[in-house]
Amino acid sequence: xxxxxxxxxxxxxxxxxxxxxxxxxxxxxxxxxxxxxxxxxxxxxxxxxxxxxxxxxxxxxxxxxxxxxxxxxxxxxxxxxxxxxxxxxxxxxxxxxxxxxxxxxxxxxxxxxxxxxxxxxxxxxxxxxxxxxxxxxxxxxxxxxxxxxxxxxxxxxxxxxxxxxxxxxxxxxxxxxxxxxxxxxxxxxxxxxxxxxxxxxxxxxxxxxxxxxxxxxxxxxxxxxxxxxxxxxxxxxxxxxxxxxxxxxxxxxxxxxxxxxxxxxxxxxxxxxxxxxxxxxxxxxxxx
Length: 288
Hints:
Layout: E1 5-6, H1 8-16, E2 21-25, H2 35-42, E3 49-50, H3 77-86, E4 94-98, H4 106-115, E5 121-124, H5 127-133, H6 165-170, E6 178-181, H7 185-189, E7 206-207, H8 223-234, E8 242-245, H9 253-261, E9 268-269, H10 273-277
Parallel strand pairs: 1-5, 2-3, 2-4, 4-5, 6-7, 6-8, 8-9
């Protein structure tokens, strides 16, 4: 079972082994939402199912059963399980998720699978680019996204923690909570804000841009290096207290994965993130 990362050289024989495995293409471009679908149609790993951030991994704005708020609200576990069932995903399958954007978007699906109780989920290390470099087979078209299956995925105990705005607010400034913000440093400092109405960050948050988890070739850094970097960031704080967030709960997940790869355990996600936090001007905000 692969639970964090899987390499292209591991995925190829796994697919050929006859073991149940489903690959998901999560490619997405935030400023060009249709671009990910076009990338998938042009070329993808054979058999890969399309997982679109807006359509499959987020709830519609204002959905009454959404599990979080913010720019990319989480769908309910039940709604997500119904989608998994519709593409034929079953509990015995190894899930492998990838994108073309440095694990920014596929991490969302990785986290959601853990959230509904499916532990056998892994990110393709290096993404689409690593698959191409390894000479992996490629197919085009959209047939892989059109499967239908009548049975919902059966929900089991959550294997990862979802934190709410109320919890973050109630624990603000206390040793029991360490907030890590995955946005770029200029956004964290409040110098720019291209997406949300207010610039800045949650008071007391630490900043680790999610891109810092990858090396120059787009692979996650070695576990020992990630461990040293997070140890330095936490500066003695308990890794078990960490709550990850970003702008809308998507790009925070690579930090969560990196901490797990580093042997620091599975930390919590504040999915509403800055977009939900900053929507209420009465909540405390900081800059600098």
